[in-house]
Amino acid sequence: MRVSGVLLVVLIFGHLLVNLVLPEGGVHALNFAFVAGKFASPFWQWWDVLMLWLAFIHGANGMRTIVNDYVQGKTVRTALVWVIGIVAALMIVLGTLVVFTFDPCAGVFGAFENPDSALFEVCQAAAN
């Protein structure tokens, strides 16, 4: 867990730097098109998935340690450890699916999208 902790620090600060510091306008530059542009790159997909996996594994292990330290009953302790593991695994699978199946053009042609946006034009060109 020491290695995952160090790796998480690098991944999280890199994530914050790229999302909040480097874009012109800072946090105000974050919008759907910004996220769609990032998720179009396999590099950023894997960056975010690695951060997700390590965060859930690291957090679940920490919760398991707390349960093992403070829960007295063996049956309850075992049940809680299983619940933590199942929830962490489920969230890892769902988060990974979201990252790798993210389609920035889904729903773009709906009533809430601005037809003047660059994302609308890109998705319309891709559909034709």
**Count of DSSP strands:** 0
Low-confidence stretches: none
Which class best fits the helix and strand makeup? mainly alpha
What's the number of domains?
Answer: 1
> Which percent range fits the helix content?
over 70%
Question: Could you report the average pLDDT, rounded to the nearest whole number?
Answer: 86
How large, in whole angstroms, is the Cα Rg? 19 Å
Number of helices: 5
Quote the beta fraction.
under 5%
Shape type: elongated
* Biggest β-sheet description: none
The arrangement of helices and strands along the chain is HHHHH
| Distance between the first and last residues' Cα | 48 Å
Keywords: Heme, Iron, Membrane, Metal-binding, Transmembrane, Transmembrane helix
Subcellular location: Membrane
Protein name: Succinate dehydrogenase
GO molecular function: metal ion binding
Structure description:
The chain is mainly α. The protein has one domain. It has five helices and no strands. Helix 1 (2-21) packs across helix 3 and helix 3 (42-70) runs antiparallel to helix 4 (74-101). It is elongated and about 60 Å long. The N and C termini lie far apart (48 Å). Its main location: membrane.
